Amino acid sequence: MRYLVAVPLILLSYVAVPFGHLTLSSYLFQRSLPFGDEEFDFAAEFTEKFAYLNGFWPVTVALLLFVVLWWMTAAWPRIALLPSAPIAFVGLLTAKGAEQFVLCVATPLVAWGLAWLAAKVVSWPVTGDVRRSPVEVLIGLRGGGRLRVQSRRLLVDKLPPPRHPSSPVGRVAIRFDRIGHVEAGTVVSPAQWRFGNTSELTITPGPALRIIGGGQEWLLPVDDVDTTMRLVLERARRRAKADPRPPMDSTRWAEAKKLWDLGPSQPMRPNQKKVRHGTHHLMLVLSVLTAAMAGYSVFRAFSGSWSFVFGALFFGGISYGTARGWASLGAAVKLAEENPHSPLADEPDPRRIPVTGWSSQPTMLGQTSDL
Predict the structure, then answer these.
(1) Residues pairing with 348 in the sheet
(2) For a designed S-S bond to 12, which of 1, 16, 293, 296 qualifies (C-beta 3.0 to 4.6 A apart)?
(3) DSSP 3-state assignment of 266?
(4) Cα–Cα distance between 316 and 257 in angstroms, integer?
């Protein structure tokens, strides 16, 4: 039922907003003409813009991304900028007058806001259907950072830059099948908490959630700790799926081993350089574009000259290679996020007090995965 409300909001954000921008731009342009006081047909102009641009391919790509990432609510607002931001940017370059300037600035903001609202509709409030579903729930942390309760794992992002500039990842994750201990508690005095990627978060006094699993220990300052703990526990019971780690000599451990080499003896110092995530997705974009060019070459080969076969092979090879590279690099980064410490290291002791002034009420989960 939630998606019955969210999908129309997504269509407004991804389709109606960019073409509405083009329609209003035409209206403002006509009104600026000396004889621009004649009646303007908004519906006909909107239809004409849509047909003239053949649907505008960024809109199609945005809708395809939504279909693929229907559960990742954090991505929806960013996807909304794919069709809206280029149109708004071009409009700013040619804007004449304050009205066109305001329209160009408002277009991506409205698109982002509608997608953000759609994400809120499907994830809040956190009821039983949300806890059991794979849809991503975003929870802000006091002092910075964000907990993302995803389909198969917990992910903490938006952390301060890692203390060590050589850290390959700026976020950490724990798979549900590796969670072994969850407890809610209270911190009575400020404390610093260092995650496995060497990022440090200031734990302000108040409720906090402690999670142990996968060789990691997290202390997350969340205000609604009871709701968050219930969400984590039920999502873990419902969605946990065993995912054995690859052999230790696999090349997929390359990024994770960089973290393991950053031992306690390594110097830690203030670092303002954040780790950029998602740059490897450019390889996926290149793969999709070259795949389209390969498909066009195949079409021309059957409808025209057979010389296009060489183009199909060339672009097809590039598409396949970049897709393989994207998948390989993405798997290595994901493995580093989930294993900032070596799997051979001991699991943190839940009986140990994590910080001074910590009091808790523990809830135990059975370990369900291998090493």
Answers:
(1) none
(2) 16
(3) coil
(4) 33
Asked if residue 360 lies in contact with residue 217, where contact means CB atoms within 8 angstroms, the answer is no
pTM equals 0.84
Alpha-helical runs (H) found in 240-341 = 254-260, 281-303, 308-338
Residue 36's φ and ψ, nearest 5 degrees, are: -95, 25
The conformation of residue 245, written as its DSSP 8-state character, comes to P
Q: How many other CB atoms are there within 10 angstroms of residue 361's CB atom?
A: 11
Find out whether 195 and 164 touch, Cβ atoms under 8 Å. no
Helix, strand, coil percent values for the chain (each to nearest 5):
50, 15, 35
**pLDDT, tens digit, 9 for 90 and up, residues 212-248:** 999 999 999 999 999 999 999 999 999 999 888 999 9
Closest CA to 16 of 107, 94, 141: 107
Q: Which two tokens stand for residue 96?
A: 């004449």
Range name among 114-118, 170-174, 306-310, 312-316 with the lowest pLDDT average: 306-310
Which of 290, 287, 262, 279 is closest to 330 using CA atoms? 279
Q: Are 311 and 293 in contact (CB under 8 A)?
A: yes
* Rounded distance between C-alpha atoms, residue 335 and residue 331, angstroms: 6
Token readout for 39 is: 């009646």
Residues 6+ apart with CB under 8 A from 122: 2, 3, 6, 73, 130, 135
Residue 80: name the closest of 123, 133, 21 by CA: 21
- What phi, psi does 267 have (nearest 5°)? -70, 135
Strand partners, 355: none
Paired tokens of 222: 């969340």
pLDDT of residue 370: 40
**Binning pLDDT at 50, 70 and 90, where does residue 368 land?**
very low
73, pLDDT greater than 90: yes
Q: Helix or strand or coil: residue 361?
A: strand
Amino acid 176 reads: F
Angle between the 57-68 and 17-32 helix axes, to the nearest 10 degrees? Answer: 160
Token duo for residue 127: 């009821």
- pLDDT for residue 185: 94
Length of the chain, please?
371
For 190, list phi and psi in degrees, rounded to 5: -60, 145
